[in-house]
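We were asked to recover a plausible sequence for a given structure. The inputs and outputs are reproduced exactly as logged, with field labels preserved.

PROBLEM: sequence recovery
POSITIONS: 333
GIVEN STRUCTURE:
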């Protein structure tokens, strides 16, 4: 065999050896050994708005600001709420006073006043009864007129009615309020307190606070704007926990399991992030267009959720990443 024929043979043999050594130049996935997956950093955002409507008085944070949970993001004008709070406080105070009056019962002065009225009614009734007894024998002989007698009878009857009224009033004062009245007073106080609590909640809701640690990605309104309940004012990107959404091919599914440690890398970022597989979808889906793998697009894949344990500001939401599993389970044969 001459040298011209030998060179092509050697080239083919070299390609075969290189292909075997590199498992098809990386195109044939290894049955065992490290496993590389592809995906993106999850986009996790929360829209924040006021529960009550009003005019925005201040907004101390700008887009791009990193905030902690509980940070004041915006404040509504409180003038109208403050007036409602004052009115509710006055109603609670009035209800408390009414209930205390019922629970304490009649004062000594009230009882003394009722006794004095009863004594006056008794005296008036006694006078009327004496006039009635004195004039009764004079009616038949005609010593007094029929009109005077009729007036005497009416005065006696009226005095007796007033006496009965004074006796009942004294009895009521001595007995005190009914149990039903006291319960009604307690119910009225509870209603006033509930109304005050509701106003207090509205007052607290004039302050818009960050619900989670995150970064302000959208400031949808500006100070002075009138906003309605639930209208989005800020959008926060949730920084922690940072999650990666990756996909594993159906043929490699048996090699991964929750709890496995992984390494996450991104283009242009030299840092290697540590993560843990936290969730594997029980349902297969077609490979998303945003995922680049060495398999065909029509292959079925399963979604993984990976929790990044040491995130920083360089790993951005939505960013494509590579997930490397150094020690996956052996492939099923």
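RECOVERED SEQUENCE:
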């Amino acid at each position: 065999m001459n040298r011209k024929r030998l060179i092509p043979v050697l080239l083919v043999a070299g390609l075969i050896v290189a292909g075997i050594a590199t498992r098809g130049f990386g195109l044939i996935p290894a049955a065992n050994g490290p496993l590389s997956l592809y995906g993106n950093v999850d986009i996790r955002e929360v829209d924040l708005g006021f529960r009550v409507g009003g005019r925005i008085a201040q907004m101390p944070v700008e887009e791009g600001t990193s905030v902690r949970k509980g940070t004041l993001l915006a404040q509504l004008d409180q003038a109208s709420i403050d007036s409602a709070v004052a009115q509710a406080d006055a109603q609670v105070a009035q209800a408390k006073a009414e209930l205390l009056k019922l629970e304490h019962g009649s004062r000594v002065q009230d009882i003394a006043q009722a006794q004095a009225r009863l004594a006056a009614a008794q005296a008036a009734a006694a006078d009327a009864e004496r006039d009635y007894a004195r004039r009764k024998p004079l009616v038949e002989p005609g010593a007094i007129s029929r009109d005077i007698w009729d007036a005497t009878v009416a005065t006696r009857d009226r005095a007796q009615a007033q006496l009965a009224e004074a006796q009942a009033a004294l009895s009521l004062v001595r007995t005190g309020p009914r149990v039903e009245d006291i319960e009604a007073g307690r119910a009225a106080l509870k209603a006033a307190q509930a109304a005050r609590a509701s106003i207090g909640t509205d007052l607290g809701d004039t302050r818009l606070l960050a619900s989670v640690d995150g970064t302000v990605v959208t400031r949808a309104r500006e100070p002075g704007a009138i906003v309605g309940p639930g209208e989005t004012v800020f959008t926060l990107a949730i920084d922690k926990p940072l999650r990666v959404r990756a996909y594993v091919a159906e043929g490699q599914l048996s090699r991964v399991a929750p709890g496995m440690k992984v390494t996450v890398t991104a283009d242009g970022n030299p840092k290697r992030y540590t993560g843990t597989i936290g969730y594997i979808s029980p349902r297969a889906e077609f490979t998303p267009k945003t995922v680049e793998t060495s398999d065909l697009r029509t292959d079925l894949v399963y979604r993984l959720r990976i929790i990044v344990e040491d995130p920083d500001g360089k790993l951005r939401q939505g960013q494509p990443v590579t997930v490397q599993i150094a020690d996956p389970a052996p492939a099923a044969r």
